[in-house]
Protein: Formyltetrahydrofolate deformylase
Organism: Bogoriella caseilytica
Amino acid sequence: MPGEHARIMVSGADRSGIVAAVSRVLNEQGGNITALDQHSTDAEGGRFFQRAEFHLPELSERRAALEAALEHTLRPLNMTWRLAEAGSRARVAILASRADHCLMDLLWREQRGELATETTMVISNHTDLAAQVGNFGVPFHHVPVTRETKAEAEAAQLELLRGQVDLVVLARYMQILSGNFLQAVGVPVINIHHSFLPAFMGAGPYQRAKERGVKLIGATAHYVTEDLDEGPIIEQDVERVTHAYSATDLARTGADIERRVLARAVAWHAEDRVFVDGNRTVVFA
Amino acid sequence: MPGEHARIMVSGADRSGIVAAVSRVLNEQGGNITALDQHSTDAEGGRFFQRAEFHLPELSERRAALEAALEHTLRPLNMTWRLAEAGSRARVAILASRADHCLMDLLWREQRGELATETTMVISNHTDLAAQVGNFGVPFHHVPVTRETKAEAEAAQLELLRGQVDLVVLARYMQILSGNFLQAVGVPVINIHHSFLPAFMGAGPYQRAKERGVKLIGATAHYVTEDLDEGPIIEQDVERVTHAYSATDLARTGADIERRVLARAVAWHAEDRVFVDGNRTVVFA
Amino acid sequence: MPGEHARIMVSGADRSGIVAAVSRVLNEQGGNITALDQHSTDAEGGRFFQRAEFHLPELSERRAALEAALEHTLRPLNMTWRLAEAGSRARVAILASRADHCLMDLLWREQRGELATETTMVISNHTDLAAQVGNFGVPFHHVPVTRETKAEAEAAQLELLRGQVDLVVLARYMQILSGNFLQAVGVPVINIHHSFLPAFMGAGPYQRAKERGVKLIGATAHYVTEDLDEGPIIEQDVERVTHAYSATDLARTGADIERRVLARAVAWHAEDRVFVDGNRTVVFA
Amino acid sequence: MPGEHARIMVSGADRSGIVAAVSRVLNEQGGNITALDQHSTDAEGGRFFQRAEFHLPELSERRAALEAALEHTLRPLNMTWRLAEAGSRARVAILASRADHCLMDLLWREQRGELATETTMVISNHTDLAAQVGNFGVPFHHVPVTRETKAEAEAAQLELLRGQVDLVVLARYMQILSGNFLQAVGVPVINIHHSFLPAFMGAGPYQRAKERGVKLIGATAHYVTEDLDEGPIIEQDVERVTHAYSATDLARTGADIERRVLARAVAWHAEDRVFVDGNRTVVFA
């Protein structure tokens, strides 16, 4: 039963005994670990990352005791930890502009039950996608953005988001979010960049890929930081192209890569498979 | 230092507390886990598989005590376990016939230090590859095989292998090993099959792939069992082909896939990343 | 301008001079070849396949003369040929059951302008997908099928299809079409098979892939013939899976492969890039 | 028979009638086109590229007449053209330093008959690879290079190369060739760059890939121009990596990609499948 399955994520400065401590507590509380991934960045002095799935009958009754025991054990070790039930879903806001491919793919995968997400709203600076979003029964908010109104627009977005979401996804949202927004939003923000970073950073990557004559084009899903195109990379993929591809062909191929790379990144994030390690990620996928 | 790094592999019928037990022992003995993969096939009543890398200063002095503690802990749990130092190398015999691509690739990768193997001998039913093997300083044994002499040939092979190897690799060896041989050899045997199993089982897969007009061809590395083409699959890969590929083109493309699939399978096996689970494998790669 | 671009497809028993004959006629009629693919299956006695894109100002006025000249030239050579304007779209009927992924992806790509198709109807033996299809403004016909009513159902389908479509696409349609239907329908039928043929032919391929422990799963788009799972393969693709994938994970991964393989096959067919060569295809993609 | 098969490559400013003109001449001279690829970069005012394979009995006797007819036809159209017999092999010099993987793979593929090349010499600024090259029976020349002696070293290299080769391959050659050398050498030079250009141009790409946390690493084969890392790209490929890859793992994975990307580029060049189009390539592969 879903209610009997959960996972625990632990990270912090590496030291001996963390795996032992966590697994001892789980065992004492009646849990059975069914999948575990652990990675230390160095044999000594590195950072520690662990994700474990476990089975624990009557989890809801025992959860408080389990959490108390974990806190009692892991606080002295200076570890950051978090528990999530297997059936839990991340509340998501998707920001989009006019392009529909990433947005539609996320909504469709969620509807199919492929994503551990619950999209609570779509915010767009255009109205083009309102009907398509409506077909999925998801609230659509139009927040126009111009150079002059950017501050007010971001304030309006934050007002919509406050307390409502665990994750913001930029699904080909064509506005740059300010540092103020990123600090205020208080949840991770995932972006899909339409190139294989760090190649073709910035605007117009498909045109520039065409001009450079590359034989593969790609896309990159990453957490957003104030340094544009520089946040921790979650997932990347590429596809083969040839001299015969027009700019339109490249954009279409790129759209396919974008939607699948973003869907993977969101799926992994929602299942707590992604850990941020400075400007990089550890992904237990 | 290599002498301070090791790994432990544990498997058996799943039950609560195994991760906790192993990590407690490692911790008590001064070890720090730096990478851990664990998989149970079911939440209840499944099979348990774990591989953990750890760092333990003065490992050589402490190894006996560690092993005693592990045995004391894991025997009552009915777990199979094994310890290997990070620098250890599997002693390998490669069996080949006339095709050189898989054999050369393994010898060359070992020479570069890419494989945790030490090829102690090559046995072939032909002499074609003697000089190429000699260039690597590896002993080459010619054991001819005919339908009539198969039993004697296998006896001669077993005589060469006895106590000398931890693994036998069939690198496009074109003879079928008997059930008697497989039982007598006492170590795992890895084969590379020149198709994407279970498509095109048996002989002539490239010709049959051409006739069927498939758009991808592949190769499969698997442990050998008495059921030909049916042993646990370790690794598979494919490559795209077109209508324009001749039978020769298919065989060349196939050779590339074969050598890289076999090299991956041998590398993972030698690093104790592959666990046999009935007729399947669990690969922590 | 689109109206000035067209393509010509030529096929037949190979003989000298066909490329010269076709290109001479195009040149005499004012056309400029901008892309040409040609393949003969053998240097002598093979079959000939050619697809050429060309630019011809005032194509609509000159088309009749061009076609007369082509017929005059190619009929004596026993060649089959066909002309299509670059902007032309194949009229398509999609047959589906309950699974939506392939159907939705085709409708969505067509809406985006990625496919040279015009889906004129969706026919399903269930009503589950009626609303989703309706969102795209495409007529949805419910034709239930039971073992007893199969003949009448096929008759009803044929009645709907007659003269209305250039292509039938089976988008995870879970009924087997009779030989009578295939003969009567008079247009090509493309199916998506949820495995990498010829592995796992027949039913339940994901479960069987799980049981066999394969490391890649795939999908195959093929023209439908009376021999189930045996028609000419248009496109195949695979994705990597691991021991950790549940049957549900395999089915989800498989759905992703299925929709992109089918979309590619339909796109290529609609652009006249696929030629049938006995039980195989020549694909100029 | 090989002596009856040949190919013709044609390129130049696009204009109507070139395909017709070439195929007419081939037909008149008794040739039968068995494979043809043609690409124009634009419908009007673009550049034209064509490669055609044909079968022509008694080619050696008829070659002079065929060439005369082609010249008579194509010179007035300002086309560049070249004829090559199917069995012809490009004479190649490989320049290497200490890394052996690309060099060995090329020599090994040539020995197997996979490449239409004949490596006439290996030139290295180190002696490490002399024995390995000697095993293949290929002359090895040691030309040391220091900052002070670079001009003399290049003169010595040019002396070795003059009139002896059709292609120079830089197989992880760690010296930058001067503009003077590139002008004097008079044949194409192919380089393998150990990253997915234009990401990580310059030195240390694997270390930088590790620092940036990319999820794929790649390699690029390109023609060498005076702008380092900027010549026309022939082929690229990538492989998936994870957070668990050490710098050594990345370099090993990279070596695999490098050798297969370079091998493909050399194979395609030797079969006249690559056309330079400004700073890009047209590859009929």
Remarks:
- Residues 247-270 of chain D form the longest helix (24 residues).
- Residues 2-85 of chain D form a domain with the Alpha-Beta Plaits fold (CATH 3.30.70.260).
- The CA atoms of residues 190 and 270 of chain D lie 11 Å apart.
